[in-house]
Amino acid sequence: MSAPSRQRPRPRPADLLGPARRRLPRYLHDLAELVAIDSGSYNPDGVNAVADRVQARLTSLGFAVERIRPPAAAEPPFDAPRTGDVLVARKAGSLAEADGGRRILLAAHMDTVFEDGTAAERPFTLDGTRVYGPGVSDDKGGLLAGLTALELLQEQGEAEYAELVFLATPDEEIGSPTSRTVTEEVARGVHYALGLECARENGDLVLARKGVADFRLTVTGRAAHAGIEPERGANAALAAAHLVVALQALNGRWDGVTVNVGVVRAGHRTNIVCPEAELRLEVRAATAADARRVRRAIDDAAACPPVPGTAVTVEQLDDCPPMEATAASHRMLAAAEQAAAALGFTLGATATGGVGDANLIAGTGVPVLDGLGPVGGADHSPQEWLDTATVPQRVALLASLITALGDSGSDT
To answer: Which residues form the active site (predicted)?
Structure first.
């Protein structure tokens, strides 16, 4: 049986551009308010002040909003810094899944990398078409663009989707330690995910992100007096040095894979043959298959330490899956390119080595397209900026993409 016809014509991108332009003054006013809030990852009160404003906007749009407070640490250190709430909002559409309705997730984060006091030191500033301030691009500009796009859809009476889900996390800038489980639970079962990080400086969307894994290698040797009987020792520092060379040599073996030994610790005294050493390394890979290949190579290197009497143990401390470009995400990009053309600009896409919540969503098997906020740049620096001239186009693009995906009926 074919899906029923739409109850009303789908809004054209051009229909959304004018309303988006009219909303620009309010967008800038609200962005200035958000940037004025210190909301570093370890400032739960500041992050929750942002969440209060997001919640109010979503409630006014008919979303049911849930605030999830991260639990206290269940293991040492029990005094670990807390983060703000995770915000999850849902709104049912008019189109059943059985009739081709799709569940669409919009994801943004509320925290920044900046310390308390930065908002006062570097307040929101408009210079021509650019605005400056802490978090203006990463990610308060994208967060607000998502809310504005949802307001456009309500204004147009567009509700032909199964469900819209809005996720705002409090700790993306520190690897999402408290929100990861919620993000993965929310992502499971949605058909498409739209990441609200701002577009690259050249306007590109983000089609793929590398995954990241952190490892600790502990090298155990045998202590001995370095001057009297060094032959009785097994130098863990020497074994670690060989391992550093072997691990760094993995760079270039697979396209898109980087390995970096960033921390090396060994020994305590110069007159003792070093009995223990530690390496910390980071691996970034564009695909899950390559990540598995690197892990096997690390294990192989650890299994055969070059110094007799030493042994190596490998621990994986963290793992963030890659956001891989898939056939479904390419179809999402094609829909975005079509909408951009109707709005009068050309859209590109790129892959990046940086990670974010989009990685966690992609790790559940959901196709993701990221970078759908306005154009910005110099993230994490005093020069962070957002191009206000791109706000109306990018808001209209996002709203158009939601309408295109909401009742597409295409398989992912």
So the answer is: 111, 172
Quote the number of domains for the chain: 2
Which residues are catalytic, by number?
A: 111, 172
Q: Average pLDDT, stretch 73-93?
A: 78
pLDDT of residue 7: 59
Does the pLDDT value for residue 75 go beyond 80?
no
Residue 369 lies in a domain: yes
CATH number at residue 18: 3.40.630.10
Three-state secondary structure readout of the chain: CCCCCCCCCCCCHHHHHHHHHHCHHHHHHHHHHHHCCCCECCCHHHHHHHHHHHHHHHHHCCCEEEEECCCCCCCCCCCCCCCCCEEEEEEECCCCHHHCCCEEEEEEECCECCCCCHHHHCCCEEECCEEECCCHHHHHHHHHHHHHHHHHHHHCCCCCCCEEEEEEECCHHHCCCCCHHHHHHHHCCCCEEEECCEECCCCCEEEEECEEEEEEEEEECECCECCCCHHHCECHHHHHHHHHHHHHCCCCCCCCCEEEEEEEEECCCCCECCCEEEEEEEEEECCHHHHHHHHHHHHHHHHCCCCCCCEEEEEEEEEECCECCCHHHHHHHHHHHHHHHHHCCCCCEEEECCCCHHHHHHCCCCCEEECCEEEEECCCCCCCEEEHHHHHHHHHHHHHHHHHHHCCCCCC
CATH number for the domain including 249?
3.30.70.360
- Residue 317 pLDDT exceeds 60: yes
Percent of the chain with pLDDT over 70: 95
